[in-house]
Amino acid sequence: MAMKIDAELCTACGDCEPVCPTSAIAPKRGVYVINAAICTECEGEHDLPQCLNACMTDGCIIPVDL
Question: N or C: fewer beta carbons within 10 Å in the chain?
Fold first, then answer.
């Protein structure tokens, strides 16, 4: 599985980008997106996805089925 950023809720603060250990998060068209092909949900490195801890907007970052 991977994580997904809801473009309608993203405030483009950028807090999630530097905490991603796989560099799967990048800006795109004024908001941030997660590349599902390289997102590991931080498995093996952290107990929870680090983007969830960094994001201040509830429900902005959610798991997505591939």
Answer: C
Note the residue count of the chain.
66
- Per-residue pLDDT of 56-66, as tens digits, reads 999 999 998 75
Question: Do 22 and 40 meet the contact criterion of CB atoms below 8 Å apart?
Answer: yes
φ/ψ of residue 31, rounded to 5: -135, 180
Question: Structure pTM?
Answer: 0.91
- The span from the CA of 44 to the CA of 56, in Å, is 24
| SS3 category, 27 | strand
Of 29, 25, 13, nearest in space to 50 by CA? 25
